User: Which sequence fits this backbone?
């Protein structure tokens, strides 16, 4: 078997979660940056405030994450100059999808969740794969701990199937405080079994009054 | 300035060593509505006279935010000004992307000047018909530059461009030595005063002028109309010094201004 010398990616681990509510959105990501069985740093933010009502959380290869965040932030600045207003979350969602697909044949090794408020003030969460396929959902998790978290969210948030007709609201009836508590619980659980998730979780809440951030300690092992 | 046989092409020199097309472009700047800029050690203020093409239309935008730390005011062909603002914004964004820091003002004006110079040395182009007052703050302090269509630029403590700007310049010449010690509010007040000088008799109202400021702790932004209103009302309307008569050769006001000029 020939030795492959062209692998340019690295998985830095980590987990991201987002939950959409009727008038809020919670986005959370752990702060551990790892490679292999080592930890690079315990205090690395995977969350980027792209706009007033739009926050991006990314797991995967952090080099690509940084480049993607800078790209989107620059595009947002151009948008603001041209349209004299901030980009809405659905608009940013499409932009992110296009940006990712642009590199379809040399992808950003990133697993993204975009969260925020749509133009009606309702919470929205968009979840992506590495090449830009996206969908608006009521909640999502991406990253190394996603497999441990998604079943729990499915159970708790009772989101109706998108296959059902008539189309039901994707947002959860939970209150903001309950959603934040749920996020803290799922992170604590994922930290137990996923070696790449831990240290701290950064929780960002967007609602009508703005963006609020809090940090919670997690297990360091 | 009169027509002569050396003024058809921008690439033709006159025997006296002048490029008439470039000088005509500077005339276009003089025809535009006035813009003034003032600088202290910590703030830079830009103020412009808003002219509407007619009572039915909206005012032309003459002040553009380029980045959090830089803004410009234009006089002359606003279309050219808009295009150049887009270029300046892109330069700032690209620099910040690569270097994670704001583009220094002096670098920005050089790029702008080089872009203007190109149009003075190509037979298939024309010079930009707009003068820009570039106001910005960077690590080296507060700066005010004037970029003209010829591709040259100078740094100023205070300057005025556009029609009837000589009156404002005279006003500023009397006071500029103390600008460095001015507070933020004094600077804004003097900018509005300078604009008032260019109106020479027309009533100064908050709807007719736009004021923008950038400072060490203040991103570039336009000042609210209400605040300008208050400042105008508090200004004493006594003629403390008569506005000097603009020397007529300088202000070559045509009987009508071409629609694209502002």
Assistant:
């Amino acid at each position: 078997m020939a030795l492959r010398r062209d692998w340019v990616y690295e998985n830095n681990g980590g987990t991201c979660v987002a939950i959409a509510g009727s008038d809020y959105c919670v986005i959370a990501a752990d702060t551990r940056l790892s490679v292999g069985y080592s930890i690079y740093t315990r205090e690395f933010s995977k969350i980027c405030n792209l706009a007033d009502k739009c926050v991006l959380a990314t797991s995967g290869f952090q080099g690509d994450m940084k480049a993607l965040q800078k790209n989107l932030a620059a595009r947002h600045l151009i948008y603001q100059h041209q349209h004299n207003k901030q980009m809405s979350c659905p608009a940013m969602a499409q932009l992110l999808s296009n940006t990712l697909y642009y590199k379809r044949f040399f992808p950003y090794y990133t697993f993204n969740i975009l969260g925020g408020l749509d133009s009606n003030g309702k919470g929205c969460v968009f979840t992506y794969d590495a090449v830009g396929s996206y969908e608006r959902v009521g909640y999502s998790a991406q990253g190394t701990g996603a497999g441990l978290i998604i079943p729990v969210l499915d159970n708790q948030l009772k989101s109706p199937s998108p296959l059902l007709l008539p189309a039901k609201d994707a947002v959860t009836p939970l209150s903001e405080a309950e959603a934040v508590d749920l996020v803290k619980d799922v992170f604590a659980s994922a930290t137990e079994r996923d070696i790449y998730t831990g240290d701290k979780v950064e929780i960002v809440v967007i609602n009508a009054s703005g963006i609020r951030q809090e940090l919670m300690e997690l297990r360091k092992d | 300035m009169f027509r002569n046989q050396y003024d058809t092409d921008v690439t033709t020199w006159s025997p006296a060593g002048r490029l008439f097309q470039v000088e005509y472009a500077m005339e276009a700047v003089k025809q535009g509505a006035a813009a003034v800029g003032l600088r202290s050690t910590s703030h830079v203020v830009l103020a412009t006279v808003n002219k509407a093409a007619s009572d039915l239309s909206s005012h032309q935008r003459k002040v553009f935010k380029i980045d959090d730390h830089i803004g410009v005011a234009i006089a002359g062909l606003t279309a050219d000004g808009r295009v150049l603002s887009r270029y300046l914004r892109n330069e700032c964004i690209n620099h910040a992307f690569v270097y994670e820091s704001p583009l220094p003002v002096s670098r920005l004006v050089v790029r702008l000047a080089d872009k203007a110079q190109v149009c003075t040395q190509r037979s298939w182009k024309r010079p930009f018909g707009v003068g820009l007052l570039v106001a910005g703050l960077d690590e080296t302090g507060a700066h005010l530059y004037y970029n003209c269509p010829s591709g040259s630029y100078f740094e100023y403590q205070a300057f005025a461009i556009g029609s009837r700007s000589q009156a404002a310049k005279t006003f500023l010449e009397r006071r500029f030595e103390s600008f460095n010690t001015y507070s933020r509010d004094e600077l804004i007040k003097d900018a509005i005063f300078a604009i008032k000088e260019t109106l020479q008799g027309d009533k100064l109202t908050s709807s007719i002028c736009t004021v923008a400021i950038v400072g060490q702790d203040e991103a570039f932004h336009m000042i609210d109309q209400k605040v300008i209103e208050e400042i105008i009302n508090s200004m004493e309307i006594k003629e403390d010094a008569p506005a000097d008569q603009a020397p007529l050769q300088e202000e070559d006001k045509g009987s009508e201004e071409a629609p694209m000029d502002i």
